[in-house]
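Good morning,

Attaching, inline, the backbone tokens for the sequence recovery test we're adding to the shared suite. The designed sequence is right after.
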């Protein structure tokens, strides 16, 4: 008969207990790690939500600040007060905001808000632009041949009232054959974003594809159809005092240095007429003959696009808003929001 060693049994039981303890510790470690990960995720989600709320509030505040500046811009009393003052006599924070898309920064504790105001008078009306001018603009954007003709003809077909398509255009039969079919508008565009539905208009063409750096080391302009066209502008003519640089480059066909000279010149004061423009920007003289018919100097169009982007310093999170507003003194608030976009990039 084999006799069991009590000491060996005790050691075995201790070994089993040690293994069980190790397993319990391992299981508890996994639970603790999982709990820590879940808590960290919750904290990050809460912080992200707080940042979103904060950024949205600041971006909305930026839109309201821009609208206030635009209301002042259309107030005859304030304009009369500013008329007798030279620009250097007005503190920078009280100067009239330019409506040519330049950025205005409003700092706050955790970041800043960048605001851009663009007058719709500085763009071409997509609903009334002629075939020749539209084709010229698409060509200036770097498109040629069939690609240019498809886009031009398709835009014209989209807005006309009939079902007859141009040589390179598109009507219902094309749009109905798509994977997700829809009907051709056959009427004026109700928003500039509607261009994204038109045959040949890609997001890169609409929003603008980042251009390669120039030989001088400068970044190329990001020019898209949305920068050039509007549904609110009077027609083919653009206001030289508020036209964005892309409009000066593409619609008026001006070199980059001449466009920059115009921007600098109107910072001092608005251009009053053709003679004033050429006198203050002499390098414009060789181009005025071709561009003159597309320029107006005293537009009172009350439609503006406001883009407001709020950014936090830590993490770089950004929220962008866009509003198209009409300044109208007959409205209770002095303005009316025509379009509101909750997210822009």
């Amino acid at each position: 008969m084999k006799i069991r060693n009590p000491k060996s049994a005790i050691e075995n039981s201790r070994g089993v207990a040690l293994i069980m303890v190790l397993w319990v510790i391992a299981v508890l470690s996994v639970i603790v790690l999982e709990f820590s990960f879940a808590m960290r995720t919750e904290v990050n989600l809460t912080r992200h939500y707080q940042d979103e709320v904060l950024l949205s509030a600041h971006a909305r505040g930026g839109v309201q600040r821009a609208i206030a500046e635009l209301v002042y811009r259309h107030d005859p009393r304030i304009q009369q007060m500013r008329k007798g003052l030279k620009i250097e006599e007005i503190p920078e924070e009280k100067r009239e905001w330019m409506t040519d898309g330049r950025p205005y920064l409003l700092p706050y504790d955790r970041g800043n808000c960048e605001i851009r105001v663009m007058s719709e008078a500085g763009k071409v009306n997509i609903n009334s632009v002629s075939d020749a001018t539209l084709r010229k603009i698409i060509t200036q954007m770097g498109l040629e041949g069939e690609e240019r003709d498809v886009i031009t003809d398709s835009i014209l077909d989209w807005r006309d009232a009939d079902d007859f398509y141009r040589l390179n255009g598109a009507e219902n039969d094309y749009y109905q054959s798509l994977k997700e079919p829809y009907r051709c508008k056959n009427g004026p565009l109700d928003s500039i974003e509607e261009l994204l539905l038109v045959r040949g208009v890609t997001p890169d063409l609409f929003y603008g594809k980042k251009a390669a750096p120039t030989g001088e080391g400068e970044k190329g302009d990001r020019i898209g159809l949305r920068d050039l066209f509007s549904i609110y502008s009077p027609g083919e003519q653009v206001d030289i005092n508020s036209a964005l640089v892309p409009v000066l480059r593409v619609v008026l066909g001006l070199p980059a240095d001449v466009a920059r000279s115009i921007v600098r010149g109107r910072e001092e004061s608005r251009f009053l007429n053709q003679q004033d423009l050429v006198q203050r920007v002499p390098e414009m003289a060789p181009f005025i003959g071709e561009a003159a018919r597309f320029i107006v100097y005293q537009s009172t169009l009350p439609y503006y696009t406001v883009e407001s982007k709020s950014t936090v310093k830590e993490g770089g999170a950004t929220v962008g808003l866009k509003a198209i507003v009409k300044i109208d003194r007959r409205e209770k608030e002095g303005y009316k929001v025509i379009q509101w976009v909750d997210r822009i990039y």
